[in-house]
Structures are given as C-alpha cells and as structure tokens.
Amino acid sequence: MRFVQFEEAGQHKLGLLKEGNVNVLGPASLDDLLAKGVDLVSYAAGAEVTGERSVEELKFLPPLTRSGKVICVGLNYSDHTKESNYEQPNYPTLFLRVNTSLVAHNEPIVRPNVSNALDYEGELAVVLKSGGRHIAKADALSHVAGYALFNDGSVRDYQFKTPQWTVGKNFDGTGAFGPELVTPDEVPHGARGLQLETRLNGEVVQSASTDTMVFDIETLISTISEAITLEAGDIIVTGTPSGIGWAREPKLLMKPGDVCEVTVEGFMPLRNPIVQEPARG
Predict the structure, then answer these.
(1) CA torsion sign, 171 to 121 to 199 to 145?
(2) Three-class SS of residue 70?
(3) In the predicted model, is pLDDT for residue 281 greater than 80?
(4) Phi, psi at residue 218, to the nearest 5°?
C-alpha cells in the first residue's frame, strides 16, 4: 500500500496512491492510526473510499506530522564518510530532527537568511508501527510500518559551529519528507538493493544502492533500541551517500530558484523547490 497525506479545504486527509491517482480514505491521519496500533494494510483494505483525486491537484503533507522522534543517522555510507574527512565509526552516528524542520513534497525548502550554505542529502526513511527496548535484530523489521524519502537539508556552516550537528540539521523548513509512505510488502526485504539518487536542477548529484549502507535497517533499529525506547510513529532517517555539495570543489549549494529531487526506485519522487527565507519586518 502507498499512503499519502494531504490538505483539502483546511482539512487533513488520508489517501491511497494507485496508478497516479489518489483514493481518498477520509479525515484519518497516519499519526493517529499508528498511535492506535492499527495495521495499515488491513485498514486500507477495509476503508471506505470517499472520492478520487489526481496527484497533481494535491497539497501534500508529510507522511507524519507529529512523530515523537525523528532519529537521523550520519556517516552511514562509507563513501560519504570519506568525502567528509571522518574515520568510519563502528557505531551509528545519531542525531535528532524536530518536527518544525519538516516540509512536504512540493513544499519549498527554505534557505535561511543567516547562511547561504544549504546543502542536500537524499535519504531513505523508515517509519515504525511499534517499538520497545532491546529489539532483537532478527525481529527488527516486524516493527516497520513503511518507508518514505527524505532530504536532510543541512545548513553546513551552522552544522560545524560545534561538534554537535543539531542546529545545522534543524532550521525550520529544511527537512523534506514524503511524498508517500510505502508499506513493507511493496519493498524488498529490509529495503535492500534499491537505487537512491538525488538530482539538483535535473543533474544527478548522488547515486548509490541501499545495499551499501554501513548499518542496515535491522541493525539501526536494534542498536538504537539498546538505549532509546522506540515507539509507533518514530522515524529513522538512514543516511546519505557521497556527492554532497559541501564536499565538492567548488561547492555546490542549494539556492533560491533551484529544484531538488530525491528518488528511490519504485517510489514516487520527492521534489522540492528552494526559496529564500522572508526578511523580517
């Protein structure tokens, strides 16, 4: 199943993507369904369809808007670790994002007025349907509700102001998420072997297989749960491959008027224009 969330006439709606059109399932949200422990595939199979919309007419929302935790993984592709001049860690490099940093498909990514160092990072995100502590690696994928695309827009000069990356990864309107939540039955086991690409103004700037993650999805879920109680609706953003703009010479950074697109084979692309933050009055 392929779920999308969108806004229509001021209402939050849930839909099921089928062959370029969306079957409207009503005012339910994925946040609420996951919090209640509802099986998404069963829900979609039994839900009443109240209308149909074309993808082009939708005002998308992120697949989740009130996630309890957005846990991002840095340095999870060795080629990106090398271009970033780090030694490859033998433990996942984790940081958090806040919900106010998230934007939907087709919604602008905002370059802040305090910096022109806005960079792209195409990634695959995992949404959990259940959680707990000390999840065994063998059981980890049974906790996955689905997968989505993510652009971990990074304000690089702020990211590296301190050893902690938090500020540079959390400017409002910099983390694109969506456009669809794809359930595991539509994806290879553990989302393995999928080609991930990022395009800036139509040019491929990142390309790698999810097979080349240093820590696969099962390992990430299990390892994170050693320390943190995972919950339904939590998001794990699994890392970016090489090709970031900050590592290039000259640097290739996103600017107003650009369009950035993240793709994973079999998924609807995540597309976002870049705009400048409005000046304060």
Answers:
(1) negative
(2) strand
(3) no
(4) -60, -45
Number of H-type helices and E-type strands within the chain: 5, 19
What does the pLDDT look like over 120-154, one tens digit per residue?
A: 999 999 999 999 999 999 999 999 999 999 999 99
Helices (H), the chain: 30-35, 40-46, 78-83, 156-159, 217-227
Residue 67 vs residues 106, 127, 143, 252: alpha-carbon distances, Å: 20, 9, 15, 31
DSSP assigned state of 31: H
What whole-number distance in Å separates Cα of residue 125 and Cα of residue 119? 18
CA distance 234 to 259: 28
Is residue 9 within 8 A of residue 30, CB to CB? The reply is: no
- Alpha-carbon distance of 99 to 80, in angstroms, equals 25
Contact criterion met (CB below 8 Å) for 161 and 114: no
Backbone φ, ψ for residue 43 (5° rounding): -60, -45
The CA distances from residue 199 to 3, 128, 196, 266, in Å, are: 24, 27, 10, 16
Q: What is the pTM of this model?
A: 0.97
What are the DSSP calls for 215-234, one per residue?
S-HHHHHHHHHHHS-B-TT-
Domains and CATH numbers, the chain: 2-60 (no CATH), 70-276 (3.90.850.10)
Instruction: Give the neighbor-by-neighbor strand order of the sheet with 270-276.
Output: 109-111, 270-276, 259-264, 195-200, 203-209
pLDDT digits (tens, 9 = 90+) for 152-187: 999 999 999 999 999 999 999 999 999 999 999 999
Token digits for 99? 């919900």
